[in-house]
Design goal:
single chain; 203 residues; alpha+beta; 5-stranded antiparallel sheet; 2 helices
Length: 203
């Protein structure tokens, strides 16, 4: 890991360990190092395995690419659905256009069906990398922190090589999505995500 990424990960794990219920002993570096190691070993690359006909999957399913005006979705359907707990994923933008929308979809959603976008109905929640807003139910809304994307991305969207991180938190009565851009936490993107028995998958 780069020094900044390592420091961010150590801080995050340290906060989680320090907030464990019933933890009386002081937080030790060895605890953090052990937890970081387990998290790194558990990292699994996302692989898209179900996509609309006009979305091309390559590199073993780790890259999903559509052409100009390509209206379609790709779903990480091979991994177990996310039913509870916390889940984090990163998406790297590889194309010239920032008109893509990483997010989550109902595990039962089929991109090859009648609805090309999960976010135009109730099946999905996504982050629009161009507008900086989140989408669900056919509408886009500003993120909960209110200011959208930081400058210079504001007004022109994210660009090639930038990384979008999404944290799905399903620990309460409703879920939420929190957004990172290039390793920087911007804030809670949206709340009110229903807990579904079949779970969610990355979109």
């Amino acid at each position: 890991l780069a020094p900044l990424a390592a420091a961010q990960l150590r801080l995050a794990v340290g906060m989680l360990l320090a907030n464990q219920p019933g933890r009386a002993a002081p937080l030790r570096d060895v605890d953090v190092a052990d937890s970081v190691g387990r998290l790194l070993r558990a990292r699994v690359p996302l692989r898209f395995s179900n996509a609309r006909y006009n979305v091309e999957l390559s590199e073993g399913g780790s890259v999903a690419r559509g052409g100009p005006y390509c209206y379609g979705s790709a779903l990480c359907a091979a991994a177990p659905p996310m039913v509870d707990g916390q889940h984090f994923a990163e998406f790297v933008l590889k194309g010239e256009s920032s008109e893509c929308m990483p997010g989550i979809a109902d595990a039962a959603y089929d991109p090859s069906g009648a609805e090309p976008f999960a976010t135009t109905g109730e099946a999905g929640f996504g982050f629009n990398c161009w507008s900086g807003k989140w989408a669900h139910g056919g509408r886009e809304r500003p993120p909960l922190w209110g200011s959208g994307l930081p400058s210079p991305a504001r007004g022109q969207g994210l660009g090639r090589g930038q990384t979008v991180g999404l944290l799905l938190d399903l620990r309460g009565k409703e879920g939420s999505l929190t957004l990172w851009v290039d390793g920087v936490r911007l804030g809670v993107l949206c709340e009110g995500i229903p807990l579904r028995p079949g779970g969610w998958r990355w979109l």
